[in-house]
Each structure stands twice: as C-alpha cells, then as structure tokens.
Amino acid sequence: MEIEEKQAEVIDHFVKQASAQKGSALGSVVVEATSHPSLFAFSEILAVPTVAELEGTDNSVHLEVLRLFAHGTWSDYKRNSCKLPQLVPDQVLKLKQLTVLTLAETKKVLSYDQLMLELDVTNVRELEDFLINDCMYAGLVRGKLDQLRRYFEVQFAAGRDLRPGQLGSWLRQITYLSQFKTR
User: Fold this and answer.
1) Helix axes 26-35, 60-71, angle to 10 degrees
2) Which of 94, 119, 123, 172 is a good FRET partner for 87, with 20 to 30 A between their CA atoms?
3) What's the total number of domains in the chain?
4) Which pTM was predicted?
5) Predicted confidence (pLDDT) per residue in 44-83, tens digit
6) Boundaries of each PCI domain copy (predicted)?
7) CA atoms within 13 A on the CB side of 48
C-alpha cells in the first residue's frame, strides 16, 4: 500500500474521531494523531468543526499542538514549550521528522551542523541513524549522506501541510515557472 493511501485511511479515522469529540476529550485524539507513525498531514483534522471550536477556549492548547504538527518544527516547539503540553516520545520523533521535511522544502543540501542544531542531535552517528532509520525508511525523504562533506543531499521529500496563505504563493510560483515551459 502506498504511503498516500495509508495516510488517507489514517486521516479519515482521525477526522471521524475528532468529529465525535468536543472540548477536553479532543486532547487524547490529538495526542494519538500526532503520535501515529503513518500520519504526517494534519490540515484535515484542523478543519474539523469541533477542533476549530477549541479556539479561544480553555482547551485551545490541543488546537495549538495540531497547528504545531501541521506547520511547525522542533525549534518552534522548544520556543513555545512553556505554553504547550510536554510531548510524548512518539510525538517528539514525529515533530523531528516533520522538521526534516520543512528544511527539505527550502534546501536540497542540508548541512549536518544545521540538522544537528535543529533536531537537538549531539553527534553525527545519531543524526545519520535518525535520517536513515526514521526518515528514509519511513519513506519521508530520499537522499545521499555525505560523511566527508557533512551534508545530506535531498533527492525527494514528502510534502507538508500548506501553511495559511502559502497556497496563493505556491500557485503564483507554478504559474511563473509554467511560462518558461511553454516558450
């Protein structure tokens, strides 16, 4: 089964769960969704009316956690950890995987130093193990590790949820690039 098909089934499951819950009961759905090993897209869950209704309530922290996983990085979590619940180990892993995807959106060559800083990894072996075992084997990225030059060359990276306002920018870029293909 393709990663997209598997992800679609998981998204559908969590959308149904979130639709059936309200308020603080959504907390367990959020933890389960953000911990799930096959789920890397959260915008459909964010769009569920019961989730959107968390805005401005005592339970809005669950909405913030979902937004973090939809658009944020490990560094974003660290900056805001005093306002957010402590993440369980599976959530930490997931957020670090999503951080690699975010970095791969803008650069195709990621230095080990940048990755180690962004992921709170202390040595090259730990970084390479994470990239191979938790990112490449999961089908999130493909690329080449260059130990000598200390970088990861990204050949493929799965997409992340679009941030608010990002779709218009993305469409303008595609329109701009398509002008050159028709000439």
Assistant:
1) 20
2) 123
3) 2
4) 0.87
5) 999 999 999 999 999 999 999 999 999 999 999 999 999 9
6) 1-159
7) 27
